[in-house]
Amino acid sequence: MKGRIFTCNPLVQTVGPGLRFHIVLQGCTLTCHHCTIPGSWNYFGGTEVTIDELLSQIEPHLESYRSSGGGITISGGEPMLQAPFVIELFKQCHSRWSLHTVLDTAGFSLLDFTKPLLTVTDLLIFNLKTFDEQKHIELTGHSNQSMLYFAETAAEIGVPIHVKHVIIPGLTDDENELRSIGQWIAQIRTFEKLIIESYDPNCVMRWNELGLISPLHAHHPSSPKQNALAEQIIQDAINQSLQT
Ligand code: SF4
Q1: Using CA positions, which residue lies closest to atom 6 of ligand 1?
Q2: Residues 6+ apart with CB under 8 A from 108
Q3: What's the longest Cα–Cα distance across the chain?
Q4: Which residue out of 22, 23, 26, 30 has the highest number of ligand 1 atoms within 8 Å of its CB and is therefore the one to mutate?
Q5: pLDDT digits (tens, 9 = 90+) for 183-218
Q6: 39, CA 20 to 30 Å: which among 47, 132, 187, 235?
Q7: Which residue in 68, 229, 148 sits closest to 237, CA to CA?
Q8: Residue 28: partners with Cβ closer than 8 Å, 6 or more residues away
C-alpha cells in the first residue's frame, strides 16, 4: 500500500511521549490561518512511499523508541485523507513491534474510517482550532462539528486524548470561547492533557514562499503570559464543570 508524505523524521521529541518517528502526511482540506506547512495542502504533492519503506526506516531506531517510551506519530496535512494507509501502518507497528501509535490531527472525520483508525491509535493529539463553529469556518474554511464528533468518538472508544489549542491573539483567545473549550473538555472522559501554544510566526514566510498572503501577516504571536492566562481559563472551566 502506498501513501503520500510531506516530510518524515526518525527522531522527534515534540509530537507525543518520548522519541518518535514522525510522519507528516501530504494533503489537507483546511486552510488554517496559522498553518506553517501550506506546502502540505495539495493532496497530489509530496513523495509517494510504501508501508514497507517506512517500516524499514523505523526499524533501526526501535531501541530509541522503546528506551524513551516513544513510538510513531502521524500528523498532517490531514491524516484522515489517507486513512487506509495510516490504519495499515499503525497495525504493522503494533503487530511487529508493539510500537506506541499517536495520531496528531484536527479530527477531520470520514465516517467509514473513523472507528477503524481510532481503534489502532494509542493516543490522540486533537488540535482544537476554536470552539465556536462560525469562527472555526473563518479560521480554517470548515465547520468543526465533525471534528468535535471525531474526538468524542475517540473518547467513547477509550483512546487517551491530549487537546492542543493554538493561541492567536484576537482570534482564538476570547475568554468565553476558552471557557467553552474547557466545558467541552470536561465531558471528554479520556482527556489527559491540555497543550497551549503560540502560533509559529514563520507561517507568514511559508505562505509567501507559495505566493500566498498569510492572514496573520500583521499579527504577533502570543506571549508566555497570554498562553498561561488562556490555560488557566480553560483549566478553571474544566474544574468548574466537573464539580457541577
Ligand atoms: S490542519 Fe494542519 S496542515 Fe491543515 S491547514 Fe491546518 S495547520 Fe495546516
Answers
A1: 32
A2: 29, 30, 78, 80, 81, 142, 146, 147, 150
A3: 51
A4: 30
A5: 999 999 999 999 999 999 999 999 999 999 999 999
A6: 132
A7: 229
A8: 35, 40, 41, 76, 77, 78, 81
Pick the CATH number of 2-243 from 3.90.25.10, 3.20.20.70, 3.60.120.10, 3.40.50.720: 3.20.20.70
**Residues lining ligand 1, Cβ inside 6 A:** 28, 30-32, 35, 37, 40, 76-78, 106
pTM reported for the whole predicted model = 0.97
Ligand 1, atom 2: nearest CA belongs to which residue? 77
Residue 34 CA to residue 139 CA, distance in Å, equals 9
pLDDT at 244: 82
